[in-house]
C-alpha cells in the first residue's frame, strides 16, 4: 500500500495531529501523498503566546551554540537527501535530480547560516572624532529582532524554508513557519530535521493552512518580522495584513536572458534549455524570455529547440527525468493557453497531459502578449529578436518585475552597461537568469520585492542595532 505522509502542526512545543486535515494529491502520481492538520484559531492564539515566551529562550543561546546546531543540521540534510527528494517528487512532481539538487542547497544554506551566526557582533564607534563625543565611548551589537513569521512557497519549499528558518535562528529569534499547502510533508520533515539536530523546541512552530492562517499570523503583534516568498499579488496582501512591522518580500519575476551577437550560441542554447525547464519552469528566476540579437536569432532558435527536444519528460521518480509535472492541472493549462495566445511560432511543445506540460518554445511572440509581459512560472520560454543593445536593455526594463537577468557576451563594456542599466537585483554573465548561489545576496526591485535573501543579509533584517553609550568614560580622555 502506498504510504501517505501525515504532517502535524507544531504548536507550543507539541505536535498536534488530531483535527481537520487537508489532503495533498501528487500532480504526477494522481493520488493522495500527504495530509496536513490545519491550524485552528485556538492554535494561532497559542502559537502567538508561545512565540513571545520562546523568543527569550532562543535569544539567550550563545551564537556558538546556534552555529553548532545548524552545522549538525547541515550534515543531517546531506544524509536525508534521498528521503526528502522523494517527498518533493511525490508532493510536487519535481524530478529527483532537481529535488536532490535542492537538498544539496539546503545543506549549504544551513552551513552558511552557521558560519554567519559565529560572525554576529558589533563595533566600537569613533565618537571621539567629534567634539561632543570626546570623553565618551559608544558600542553597538546586533540583537535579535523578535519572533519571525516565515511564509514559504511550493516551488522550492525545502531550501527557501532553510533560508528563512536558519537565518532567523542564527540571529537568535524564534520562528513561526507557515508552509505552502502543496508541500506540507516536505516542510514538516525539514523542521523535524532541525529539531533532530538539536534546535530547541522553543525556536520553531509550524502552522498549516491557507491564506487566512497566514493573514492572522502576519497581523499578530507578537510577530516582529515577516519573511514572505510568493507572488506579487500575495506579497501585497501580506504587507497589508502585517501593517507597520518589518516585512521582507521575495516576489515574482519575468526573467530575461540576453544573447549578444558575440556569444557562443550553442552554449547559450544549452544553458537556457537546462535552466528554463528545471522544475517545469516554476522558479521566479527561471528563463522566461530570451532576447537574441537579430543576426543570430534563427541560429539560436534552431539550437535551442533541438536542446529542448532532448529533455526527458515524465515520471519525477525516475532519476533520468529532466522535466516532471507542474504543481497542478490548472497551472499547466494556464501556460498552454498563454502559449497558444502569444502569437509567433511554437517550435516544440505546446500541449500537456494532466499536470505535465511539454517543454514549449515560442519563437517571435507578440511583445504585448501575456506570455511575454507576465510571470509564466511554467514550462515555456519565449525567444524574441532585438537589434541594438540599448534597445534590448530598454525592452527588458519595461517589465514591472526586476529580479534577475542573464547576459551572454564577452564584451566587458556591455557587461558593465547591463550591470548599471538593467533594473534588476542581480545579473548573471555568461549564464542564464536561473542561477543562484545561496551565500550571495538575492532579491529584486520594482514588483519583485523588498530586501535581500541569503543568510548574511537576512540576519541583518532579523536583527536590530542596539547602542551602548558610556558618558564620561573613554580611553581618549577629555578634549
List the helices and strands and how they pair.
Layout: E1 5-7, E2 9-11, E3 14-16, E4 21-25, E5 32-37, H1 41-59, H2 63-79, H3 81-92, H4 96-119, E6 122-125, E7 137-144, E8 148-151, H5 157-171, E9 175-178, H6 184-196, E10 204-206, H7 211-219, E11 225-229, H8 232-242, E12 246-250, E13 256-259, H9 265-276, E14 289-293, H10 297-309, H11 329-341, E15 345-348, E16 352-353, E17 356-357, E18 360-363, H12 370-373, E19 380-386, H13 389-397, E20 401-402, E21 404-408, H14 412-421, E22 426-429, E23 445-446, E24 449-450, H15 455-461, E25 463-470
Parallel strand pairs: 1-5, 8-9, 8-11, 9-10, 11-12, 13-14, 13-21, 14-19, 18-19, 21-22
Antiparallel strand pairs: 2-3, 4-5, 6-7, 7-25, 12-24, 15-18, 16-17, 20-23
Helix pairs in contact: 2-4, 2-5, 2-6, 3-4, 3-6, 4-5, 5-15, 7-8, 9-10
Task: Note down, in words, how this protein is organized.
The protein is an alpha/beta fold. 39% of the residues lie in helices and 22% in strands. The chain contains 15 helices and 25 strands. The strands form 7 sheets. It has a 7-stranded mixed β-sheet, with helices on both faces. A 6-stranded mixed β-sheet has the order 10-9-8-11-12-24, with helices on both faces. A 3-stranded mixed β-sheet has the order 1-5-4, covered by helices on one side. Helix 9 links the parallel strand 13 and strand 14. Helix 2 runs antiparallel to helix 4 and helix 9 packs across helix 10. The longest helix is centred in the first third of the chain and has 24 residues. The chain starts with a strand and ends in a 9-residue tail after the last strand.
